[in-house]
């Protein structure tokens, strides 16, 4: 009888020590997790630089984290449609902020939401999504997945609405967003300058003729009844005057839009990224971008491989991710046939704008 009580006590004691061992392990594990997330400020940074500087390590973690987040290559409208499933990204209610984050991610509860220090402001079909995906490999870059469209469509929602869209960042991390329509929005420069005139601005530009065709092809894939390219491109088909009110044409008049931006921002605020070089030499172009942002050159040729069949560079597949991320994803679309003469007309139309843009930016993009 007495012995059975003994045994129960002994078992209880064993269980207790197992539980305390478990909790000790858990604590140690949590501490390490905390430190490896780069949040352990009490330890000098140099001690774990080895880990953070190994590109594979950094990119795997970063990409894994991103795959888990609900916001990727979706437009803000799509996010709005799906808002019920990813509520925390939509700051309708500020109280949501103070709720515990279910302990899903440690980084969710650390740092704070800041206005972006750098924005990819353009251009549509230039390669802005690819650039942002490449930048997100960098451990010091945190970016909104969706396009906020704050300085064009949602300015009325106010600055706090905008700030709450941003991911949390800790010291030394850069907050970024991309909305390619800012570059062609008349009010965007003054609005952004009113918030922060020191914001770094990245513009991905591409040959305006191929950009226009790509833009049209995308629209056509969404609305198959669209009139032909040549119908839309001319204001007067007899005199062959180009219709500058058509957005596919207007967006490519880079000099005109840049002029508007230069009324509010100095040229030194801008980095012009060549959409063509982002494809032919992604690592080289990423080097320029990281220098401009004052980041260590972490994203390098180690992160890319060239898919010969596709003819485009891809990001090295992070472990556990099912599909590789490549540039030129939409290349599978059938391109509409556009007469060479029409393209030649458009090329001539753009030439003076291009030359002016080379002059303003101090860079020859070689589109002619
Ligand atoms: C189109 O251009 C032709 C030739 O320059 C001109 O005669 C005609 O009036 C123009 N049509 C319109 C609608 O502007
Ligand atoms: C390269 O691209 C082709 C065509 O999209 C695809 O079938 C193939 O799996 C890709 N190869 C690699 C190594 O990503």
UniProtKB/TrEMBL annotation:
<dbReference type="Pfam" id="PF00685">
    <property type="entry name" value="Sulfotransfer_1"/>
</dbReference>
<dbReference type="InterPro" id="IPR037359">
    <property type="entry name" value="NST/OST"/>
</dbReference>
<keyword id="KW-1133">Transmembrane helix</keyword>
<keyword id="KW-0325">Glycoprotein</keyword>
<feature type="binding site">
    <location>
        <begin position="125"/>
        <end position="129"/>
    </location>
    <ligand>
        <name>3'-phosphoadenylyl sulfate</name>
    </ligand>
</feature>
<protein>
    <recommendedName>
        <fullName>Sulfotransferase</fullName>
        <ecNumber>2.8.2.-</ecNumber>
    </recommendedName>
</protein>
<keyword id="KW-0472">Membrane</keyword>
<dbReference type="GO" id="GO:0000139">
    <property type="term" value="C:Golgi membrane"/>
</dbReference>
<feature type="binding site">
    <location>
        <position position="214"/>
    </location>
    <ligand>
        <name>3'-phosphoadenylyl sulfate</name>
    </ligand>
</feature>
<comment type="similarity">
    <text>Belongs to the sulfotransferase 1 family.</text>
</comment>
<feature type="domain" description="Sulfotransferase">
    <location>
        <begin position="116"/>
        <end position="351"/>
    </location>
</feature>
<keyword id="KW-0808">Transferase</keyword>
<dbReference type="InterPro" id="IPR000863">
    <property type="entry name" value="Sulfotransferase_dom"/>
</dbReference>
<keyword id="KW-0735">Signal-anchor</keyword>
<keyword id="KW-1015">Disulfide bond</keyword>
<feature type="transmembrane region" description="Helical">
    <location>
        <begin position="21"/>
        <end position="39"/>
    </location>
</feature>
<feature type="binding site">
    <location>
        <begin position="331"/>
        <end position="335"/>
    </location>
    <ligand>
        <name>3'-phosphoadenylyl sulfate</name>
    </ligand>
</feature>
<feature type="binding site">
    <location>
        <position position="206"/>
    </location>
    <ligand>
        <name>3'-phosphoadenylyl sulfate</name>
    </ligand>
</feature>
<keyword id="KW-0333">Golgi apparatus</keyword>
<dbReference type="GO" id="GO:0008467">
    <property type="term" value="F:[heparan sulfate]-glucosamine 3-sulfotransferase activity"/>
</dbReference>
<dbReference type="InterPro" id="IPR027417">
    <property type="entry name" value="P-loop_NTPase"/>
</dbReference>
<keyword id="KW-0812">Transmembrane</keyword>
<feature type="active site" description="For sulfotransferase activity">
    <location>
        <position position="125"/>
    </location>
</feature>
<feature type="disulfide bond">
    <location>
        <begin position="314"/>
        <end position="326"/>
    </location>
</feature>
């Amino acid at each position: 009888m007495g012995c059975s009580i003994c045994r129960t006590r002994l078992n209880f004691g064993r269980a207790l020590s197992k539980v305390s061992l478990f909790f000790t392990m858990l604590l140690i594990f949590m501490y390490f997790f905390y430190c490896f997330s780069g949040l352990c400020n009490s330890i000098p940074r140099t001690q774990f630089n080895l880990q953070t500087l190994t590109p594979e390590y950094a990119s795997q973690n970063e990409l894994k984290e991103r795959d888990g987040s609900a916001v990727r290559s979706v437009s803000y409208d799509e996010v709005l449609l799906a808002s019920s499933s990813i509520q925390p990204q939509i700051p309708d209610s500020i109280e949501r902020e103070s709720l515990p984050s279910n302990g899903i991610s440690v980084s969710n509860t650390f740092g704070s939401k800041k206005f972006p220090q750098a924005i990819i402001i353009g251009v549509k079909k230039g390669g802005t999504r690819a650039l942002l995906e490449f930048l997100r490999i960098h451990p010091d870059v945190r970016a909104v997945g969706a396009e906020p469209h704050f300085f064009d469509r949602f300015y009325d929602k106010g600055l706090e609405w905008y700030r709450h869209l941003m991911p949390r960042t800790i010291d030394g991390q850069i907050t970024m967003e991309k909305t390619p329509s800012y570059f062609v929005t008349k009010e965007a420069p003054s609005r952004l300058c009113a918030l922060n005139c020191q914001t770094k601005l990245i513009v991905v530009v591409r040959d305006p003729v191929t950009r226009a065709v790509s833009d049209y092809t995308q629209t056509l894939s969404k609305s198959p009844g669209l009139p032909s390219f040549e119908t839309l491109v001319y204001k007067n088909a007899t005199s062959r005057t180009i219709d500058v009110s058509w957005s596919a044409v207007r967006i490519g008049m880079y000099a005109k839009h840049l002029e508007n931006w230069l009324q509010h921002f100095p040229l030194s605020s801008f980095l012009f990224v060549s959409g063509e070089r982002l494809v032919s030499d992604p690592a080289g172009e990423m080097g320029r971008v990281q220098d401009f942002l004052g980041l260590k050159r972490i994203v390098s040729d180690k992160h890319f491989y060239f898919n010969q069949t596709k003819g485009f560079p891809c990001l090295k597949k992070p472990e556990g991710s099912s599909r590789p991320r490549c540039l030129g994803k939409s290349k599978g679309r059938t391109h509409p046939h556009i007469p060479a003469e029409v393209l030649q007309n458009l090329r001539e139309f753009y030439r003076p704008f291009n030359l002016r843009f080379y002059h303003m930016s101090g860079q020859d993009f070689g589109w002619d």
